[in-house]
Design brief:
It is built from eight helices and three strands; from the N terminus they run H-H-H-H-E-E-E-H-H-H-H. The chain has 161 residues and is mainly alpha-helical. It has a three-stranded antiparallel sheet. Strand 2 (79-81) and strand 3 form a beta hairpin. Helix 5 packs across helix 7 (129-139). The longest helix has 21 residues, at 95-115. The protein is globular, with a radius of gyration of 16 Å.
Length: 161
C-alpha cells in the first residue's frame, strides 16, 4: 500500500468515527479524555498527524481539555481549571459550558469546510488557527479540495514565497 493510500485510509477511518453528523452530539468525554486514543482531540492531534501536524504547544489549543495533572491550579481571566479539565475562561465558567461553545465551533468549521467557505472559516476565532484549519482540512470535500494541510499562515506564506 502506498503512503497516499495509507493516509487516505486513516482519513476514512477518522470520518467513519467522526462523521459530520456525530459532531453536534459529541460529548465532552468524546472530545477529550485522558488516556483515550479514540477522542476527537486525539484523532486530530495524533492519529491524523501524517496529514498535517499540530503537535506541540499547549492542550489549550483545543479550547478545553481533560487534565492528566490533577494538581490544583489557580483560575484567572485567561484560563480556568477543575479537578478534571482546563479551558479558556472566555469560553465559560465550567468545562462543559466551554465545551458546548467549542463543539458548536467545530460543527460550523466542518459545515463551512464541506462547502468550501474559506472566508467563513477564517472569520471564526474560538480555537487556535492551526487547530481550526486542521479540522477544516479533514472535513473539506476531498473530491474538490480547497484547503492544504498547512495550518498556520506563516508556514503557508513561507511555502508559497
Amino acid at each position: 500500500m502506498t503512503d497516499t493510500n495509507e493516509q487516505d485510509k486513516i482519513w476514512d477511518e477518522f470520518l467513519d468515527r467522526w462523521p459530520p453528523s456525530k459532531l453536534a452530539t459529541m460529548t465532552l468525554s468524546d472530545y477529550t479524555q485522558v488516556g483515550s486514543k479514540d477522542t476527537f482531540t486525539h484523532w486530530i492531534e495524533s492519529r491524523l498527524d501524517k496529514l498535517g501536524s499540530i503537535w506541540g504547544g499547549s492542550s489549550f489549543k483545543f479550547g478545553v481539555y481533560s487534565r492528566k495533572d490533577e494538581e490544583a491550579k489557580q483560575n484567572d481571566a485567561r484560563v480556568s481549571y477543575s479537578d478534571s479539565h482546563a479551558w479558556y475562561s472566555a469560553l465559560g465558567t465550567t468545562a462543559n459550558e466551554a465545551f458546548l461553545k467549542v463543539r458548536s465551533f467545530i460543527v460550523q468549521v466542518a459545515e463551512m469546510a464541506a462547502k468550501g467557505d474559506l472566508d467563513g472559516i477564517e472569520s471564526l476565532e474560538v480555537l487556535g488557527e492551526a487547530c481550526k484549519w486542521k479540522i477544516a482540512f479533514h472535513y473539506q470535500d476531498r473530491r474538490s479540495p480547497s484547503i492544504l494541510c498547512v495550518f498556520k499562515k506563516e508556514m503557508l506564506s513561507a511555502f508559497v514565497g
